[in-house]
Amino acid sequence: MEQNAIITGGSAGLGRALTRLLVQRGWHLTVDGRRSELLADLESEVGSANLVTVAGDIADADHRAELVRRAASHGPIALIVNNASELGGSPQPTLRDLDPGTHELLWRVNVGGPLGLVQEALPQLAEHAVIISISSDAAADHYQRWGGYGGTKAALDHQTLTWAAEEPQHSWYAVDPGDMRTAMHQAAFPGEDISDRPEPESVAPAIIALISSGLPSGRYRASDLDTLLAHEAVETMTPGAAGTGVAS
């Protein structure tokens, strides 16, 4: 696999953790974020010629085109991580109080952004590329005040797996990373202590392992990936056995 990737929302949280690990593994990354100062800090921290940062909003079509143009200048794009997300307020509103402007913003960033980016990137994708969309448990479970955000993540899951049906030559994964100690998670629980949540650096390795796993396209929980990948390895090494892979 050509080691050339796009990561959206890579300036903080899980996106930043994934960026660090992939640069260490020799990938060339084109990373975006809305805050240029955080991207500059990331460049300073990583200190690699293999990192290109582009400030902008994934909901903007011109920005998506620039991301793809910059990435494709380094060869076929083997990996896209749709990580950039919009929470929809802090504290998040109930559905009763979800105003149309916030609702539209959630859909433009969390669903329209990944859709537009993949559409733009399709002609530049490497053979057997991997596309990972970062989901949430709120896409499958129902919590008070998470209806706006969770509804868009459920749509992102559906969109990702419809891509898998329509473009099966690539691998398409929707990944629920679980709770993490990030700025977004803190915004979802304003004033609460979230120090018991795991750091994104503890979640990133499982997602990195998924890239070359060969697991079938599907929706996965990051907490299940170690077990699934170990099972897949055993199945592959067992004479006469075929790896099955299990989506969750």
Structural summary, described in words:
The chain starts with a strand and ends in an 11-residue tail after the last helix. It is 45% helix and 17% strand. It contains eight helices and seven strands; from the N terminus they run E-H-E-H-E-H-E-H-E-H-E-H-H-E-H. It has a seven-stranded parallel β-sheet, with helices on both faces. The radius of gyration is 18 Å and the shape is globular. The chain is of the alpha/beta class and 248 residues long. Helix 1 packs across helix 7 and helix 7 packs parallel to helix 8. The chain has one domain: 3-Layer(aba) Sandwich (Rossmann fold), CATH 3.40.50.
Hey, roughly how much beta strand do the residues contain?
Answer: 15-25%
Low-pLDDT segments, ≥5 res: 240-248
CA(first)-CA(last) distance: 26 Å
Number of domains: 1
The count of helical stretches stands at: 8
State the CATH superfamily name.
NAD(P)-binding Rossmann-like Domain
Order of helices and strands: EHEHEHEHEHEHHEH
Shape: globular
Mean pLDDT: 90
The CATH topology name reads Rossmann fold
The rounded Rg comes to 18 Å
Strand order of the largest sheet: 3-2-1-4-5-6-7
Notable characteristics:
248 residues, alpha/beta, Rossmann fold, 8 helices, 45% helix, globular, disordered C terminus
Strands, helices and their partners?
Blueprint: E1 4-7, H1 13-24, E2 28-33, H2 36-46, E3 51-55, H3 61-72, E4 77-82, H4 100-121, E5 125-134, H5 147-166, E6 171-176, H6 183-188, H7 200-211, E7 218-221, H8 222-237
Parallel strand pairs: 1-2, 1-4, 2-3, 4-5, 5-6, 6-7
